[in-house]
Write a structure and sequence with these properties.
- It contains one helix and six strands, in the order βββαβββ.
- The protein has one helix spanning 76-79, and strands at residues 26-47, 50-63, 66-73, 85-96, 99-103, 109-112.
- The protein has a five-stranded mixed beta barrel with strand order 1-2-3-5-4.
Length: 139
């Protein structure tokens, strides 16, 4: 009696725009263009018998609605070149010093795609907005 296992049906991704991103959210799929790239950390790290390099870069990415800081880690750094258009799948919003940062962890994916037909709106930087966590106590 062999049970036939059916894979769950994949759902179509819902693409969002940069100006729709909110703190603490995840599962975003976006098409963005890399506006700028800056390496912030590059150092060797030893793991058991091998030495790996930890690389972290901050990139300004955006679309026609705005821009946000994207934190690229390790292999992601190689993909995020200035002027490249990428699809970020299963991206999440991390909070760093009260501001939003976009990131793709091990559950997400970055894909290079053909050049986008939009101009990036650089004057709407969502990472410049400071958020404050407010605890509300119910009486």
């Amino acid at each position: 009696m062999a049970a036939t296992a059916h894979a769950p049906a994949l759902r179509k991704p819902t693409f969002v725009k940069v100006d729709q991103l909110r703190p603490g959210t995840s599962g975003h799929t976006l098409v963005v263009k890399v506006v700028s790239f800056k390496m912030v950390l590059q150092k060797p790290r030893s793991d058991a018998n091998q030495v790996r390099h930890v690389r972290i870069a901050e990139c300004i990415v955006g679309d026609e609605t705005g821009v946000i800081v994207f934190t690229a880690r390790n292999e992601q750094v190689d993909v995020m070149k200035e002027g490249t258009t990428v699809i970020l799948r299963n991206a999440k919003i991390d909070m760093f010093r009260g501001s939003m940062r976009l990131a793709v962890d091990k559950w997400g994916r970055i894909e290079v795609t053909e050049s986008a037909g939009f101009d990036v709106k650089v004057d709407n930087n969502l990472s410049l907005i400071e958020y404050e966590l407010v605890h509300v106590v119910d009486d």
